[in-house]
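1st attempt posting a full record on here, be nice pls
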Amino acid sequence: MSDDSGNENIATFAAGCFWGVEHIFNKYFPDLKTSVGYSNGKENISNPSYRQVCSGTTEYAEAVRIEFDPAKTTYAQLVEHFYRTHDPTTANRQGNDTGTQYRSGIYTHTDEQEKIAKEVTERIQEKYFAPKGLKITTEIIPAGTWYNAEEYHQKYLDNNPDGYQCPTHRLHW
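the predicted structure (as tokens):
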């Protein structure tokens, strides 16, 4: 369990199955420290299991928690990469993965992160999605309590290179 509110060097993103989200961030930003887990669910449910989250009753999202050095990678760069590597126009779905746990979310830790996330979202919406008649459905809200996922989920695609990866987790532009 972790409460990272106020920590400007932590980013939390939900973009479908956390295996692929973690993998694509690490592929393009190898200096990041990442972990996968569950964020922004019902506060009366502590330390949810993968099975509980997949049931849809906890309201937790599968997410990736990123520790970053802003001298090497800015928060705005991470937000843009987040949008480049999934479909933010589908509510509660990425590829064949459906359910609230697969929603698109940016969970902010500071007011400045919220401001940056909204600015980047607006720019990405106008440049890449408005011309196609699509609307970003990503929620941008303060980060809730974080729970690490079970150990076998951590760096899953590094440890299981032939494991399932949602086809939306790739560079889209």
